[in-house]
User: Fold these one by one.
Assistant:
Number 1:
Amino acid sequence: MFDSYESFQGGVFHASVPEGRAGASIYLTHSEIVAKTQPEGEQTFSIRLSECQLDLGGASGRMLFCRTPDRSLTIFCEEKGFAQALHQDAMGTLSEQLSNLCMTQRRSENQFRFWVMASAVLLVVLCVGGYYGVLAASRAAVHALPISVDEKIGTIAMQSMDLEEPLDEEHPANQLVAGIVDRLKPHAAIREMDFNVVVVESDEVNAFALPGGEIVVYTGLIEQAESAEQIAGVIAHEMSHATLRHGLQSVSQSLGIIAAIQIMIGDVGGLLALGSELAQESILTGYSRGAETEADLEGARMLHAAHIDPKSMAEFFELLKEQQGDIPGVIAWISTHPQHAQRIENIINYEKTLPKVEYHLLDLDLSAAQQALK
Ligand SMILES: [Zn+2]
């Protein structure tokens, strides 16, 4: 008569079956849960619905255990329809137990979901926080690295730049630029930085500093400048990029967290390998706006300390702004240094905050240098 009932696959725990456990087909009658162990019909067990004690468990948490009050017999089943069938067929006998189990399970599922969500959120927070933490630490660590790291990156970047032959040391243009660097050097933020200048023949109005203090000035800049002080303004700005170590910082940031960690643990081999290309890129395309502002103000501080009017730096921006359309190549420096109107204002405002000193004109011969370039 049981055949007319739906059957479910499950099993039994009972002392009489081998190893205390056997697979079974489970049926429900109007008063009992019946389990026939396999092979078919070998042993039959039953629990009266009125006595059955339900429990949920198993690896999935969805295994339904039906036990006798003395727990000598357990019939278990994981099939979805089994609990439903129990609910219907037991005619309310087991409803309360079932709904209690249901609630407990939902609660634990919700708890599980909560912990999964909480863990995911925590992981994201840790990753993001860790990332920015490491980046911030690496910014600090950049300053702890020896200048030789900057110098190495600078040397490699310089070699990969494929510049024209620099002008002879004795060339008046070179003398002029070297004279400017000599005036500014004692006021640089890093005393031991070994500034070296080369003048390269090019119509471009451009100058840049490499990490470590190598400064490259194009003849176009010397030709277009109206005063030696204007050139000093540009050079002070470029020297500041070197002393503020913007090259190394931008390399470590572009390379991301791995480079940041390498910098922190002092392993700069990998950084050097990748760094030169990136250093070159940031030198040629310009640093971040924040870095540019920093270099402007630090440059203005240096000029002021050397008794050169920082307004000359602003003046040069102004000159480039006016001539932008007229001189081919003039945009080179200015295009890497955008927002010049704002920068002119910043420099002038900053100068007002510095103690009053008497500014001197440089006793350097710009016109001789310009003449020699013709
Ligand atoms: Zn700059």
Note: Confidence is low (pLDDT under 50) at residues 325-332.
Number 2:
Amino acid sequence: MTGGPIAVAGVSVEPGERRDIAPLASESYTGDRTTLPMAVINGIEDGPRVFITAAVHGDELNGIETCRRLLDLVDPLRIAGSLVVVPIVNVLGVQFGSRYLPDRRDLNRSFPGSHGGSMAARIARLLTEEVITGSDAGIDLHTAANHRTNVPQVRIAEDPRALPLAVVFGAPFVMRAKLRPGSLRAVALERDVPVLTYEGGQPLRFDTDAVDVALRGIQRVLARLEMIDHAPEPAVAEPMVLDASRWLRAERGGVLELHVAPGDRVTAGQPLWTTSSPMGEERASIDAEAEGYVIGATTLPLVQPGQAVLHIALPGEHVGAEDDPTEEEDEEDPDVTEGN
Ligand SMILES: [Zn+2]
């Protein structure tokens, strides 16, 4: 069935048309317009409405490249339904390579936002009202925070609509993670919109593998929703669906030698890492306490006591078994917020 025109931020987009728009989000110190650029693609055929967002954290760049490559692939004459792609949500954070907005606010704690609030609240409000609300599904692209890397993984809420989409996405891991108040994913779910949060790679760089997994995953989700005809075959037979994770922290400071790699399965008693003093003396050797999967890791070669070293997903635990304040998508960066 042929679809009708759709309107985003007051701009009408006809079936078979793509329009790149830049609605006003706020103003800079100099009074220049701060806009939220996005591509609105309205397919010829009727179908679901899906949004893709990236760089809600301004130093998480993989999603920007994913969106650029996605937009090269999508033809409004050949899709059903509509797609709204926002390659850079935190337009100000990206300018300065910063996770946060210039006032140090975390945009992913600022949803649904408000008209008269902070810069973060205004950007969040625009995205919530014009892009998230009324969508049938969304995919929000992230990377690990500073000095860490994430194995490609999809995080979802306890939502029966999200799980099949997360599985078909085809990343190696699906994490059923708790929702944090003020996050894009939580506010979308309040508006009845299931969102997949993709995490992959490191901040401030393009990680080709993480971009590839994201791009193929988005195509598979769109194919599952019958918006496109075909998508690349999944690289993994079946993602590992896990309900709990925890960061393991260094007990001793020094030079870090990891004995496992991101993505590895570990078993109880397996050596995970050794720390040594710069003089060569071995200070601590840490073994795995239980079976798990390495889903994230530090990228720093030196550690201090308490520093997060490995993010281990644990099979067989219940959702919310641990309130882990370092969960990437949701964390307040402990290096920044402590002592403030
Ligand atoms: Zn993030």
Note: The pocket of zinc ion is lined by residues 57, 60, 142, 328-329 (CB under 6 Å).
